[in-house]
């Protein structure tokens, strides 16, 4: 089973250059770690690649209460993963993937962020796909994980906006 999602957010008064120059800024990382669907989100490492590309790896422990139907396939340790995000300044995009700590053959997640500069700010388009390979209950588990992501992205844009506003103060 694979579930896809798409989210769009607009950051008023934040140029695409400012957004890109502050990707994973230490203060922003600290603020984002407090999102409701994370128990923790810690930076493992950051590396610079060719053509200005930058890769960050985070160890993420998801939060949230696992619904009974999803508990049949999801355990606490399955909700711990390494998130890898690679920023490409030439395309104004981030390719991201999730690598679970256990049962790597049963869970996949990946997608992109696309940043688009507009006259009054920056639009971010997040697209992704989550796949859990368990018969019958895989779709329930995927729905749970996507719901948790959406909970984060219900508050995450305001965290970003507040961060950018604090830089102007």
Task: Provide a short characterization of the protein structure.
The protein has 169 residues and is of the alpha+beta class. It has four helices and seven strands, in the order βααββαββββα.
What would you say this structure looks like, in words?
The chain is an alpha+beta fold. It is built from 4 helices and 7 strands, in the order βααββαββββα. The chain has helices spanning 16-21, 26-32, 68-71, 138-168; strands at residues 2-12, 38-48, 54-62, 80-88, 93-100, 107-118, 121-132. The chain has a 7-stranded antiparallel beta sheet with strand order 1-7-6-5-4-3-2. Strand 4 and strand 5 form a beta hairpin. 17% of the residues are buried.
- Count of discrete alpha- or pi-helical segments spanning 4 or more residues: 4
List unreliable stretches of 5+ residues: none
Pairing-aware structural class of the strands and helices? alpha+beta
Count every beta strand, where a strand is a DSSP E run of 2 or more residues. Answer: 7
Helix content: 25-40%
Rg over CA atoms, rounded to whole Å, is 16 Å
**Major sheet summary line:** 7 strands, antiparallel
Placed side by side, the strands forming the largest sheet appear as: 1-7-6-5-4-3-2
Mean pLDDT figure: 85
Give the N-terminus to C-terminus distance in angstroms: 47 Å
Shape: globular
